[in-house]
Amino acid sequence: MNGTEHDCPGELAGLAKALTRRDDGWFDPDLVELVFRADDPLVVTVRSTTVPVPGPATWPVSRDLLRAGLGAMSGNGAVRVRPRRVPGADHQVLVDLSGTPLGLQLLLHHRALDTFLARSEHIVPRGGGYPDSVVERGLRELLPGGGRPFGPGPGTT
Q1: What is the per-residue pLDDT across 13-67, written as a single tens digit (0 to 9) for each?
Q2: CA 114 to CA 148: how far, in whole Å?
Q3: How far lies 92's CA from each of 23, 49, 103, 150, in Å?
Q4: Is 87 exposed, middle or buried (0-12, 13-18, 19+ CB in 10 A)?
């Protein structure tokens, strides 16, 4: 990750060189920040530091989707990830955010993304170990009654 990675307890952040595809199909150099937080282990925040919009352009992307996209095309919604090989160049990963409001495509180095994801998996293992608070917070946001589909549970007011 270009020597600009830092760790805080429960957080991993790093900067990666990338290319951003413009509307005309050409790619411009970009610097992308990747942030993983243990209190939201399903998500990696991807932030372009050079997209010309007020403030940084930020997207929450599934960590599992990024991991799967290292080896095969993944995703069928607003975000898609796939490996990309160019003869004579490093192995790359295309993170296609074209289905998002600021729709664009980011081209990242495969090794940098793989290293970042591996380090995030040391903080919270892949496929498990997610804190109950993540699930509970998601249910509170989605379900009426604070995540309790049938109202308050026993012993609550």
Answers
A1: 999 988 888 767 788 888 889 999 998 899 999 988 776 665 567 889 999 999 9
A2: 37
A3: 20, 19, 19, 48
A4: exposed
Q: Count Cβ atoms below 10 Å from residue 137 Cβ, excluding itself.
A: 14
CA 49 centroid distance within chain: 15
What's the pLDDT tens digit per position in 79-116?
999 999 878 777 899 999 876 666 678 899 999 999 99
Tokens in use for 97?
A: 């955010």
Give DSSP secondary structure letters for 56-117.
Answer: -EEEEEEHHHHHHHTTS-B-SSS-EEEEE--TTS--EEEEE-TTSTT--EEEEEHHHHHHHH
- Name residue 28's beta-bridge partners: 20
Give the residue among 135, 139, 137 at the shortest CA–CA distance from 147.
139
For residues 93 and 83, the answer to whether their CB atoms sit within 8 Å is yes
Residue with tokens 């970042």: 116
- Tokens 């495969």 belong to 110
Claim: this prediction has a pTM higher than 0.70 = yes
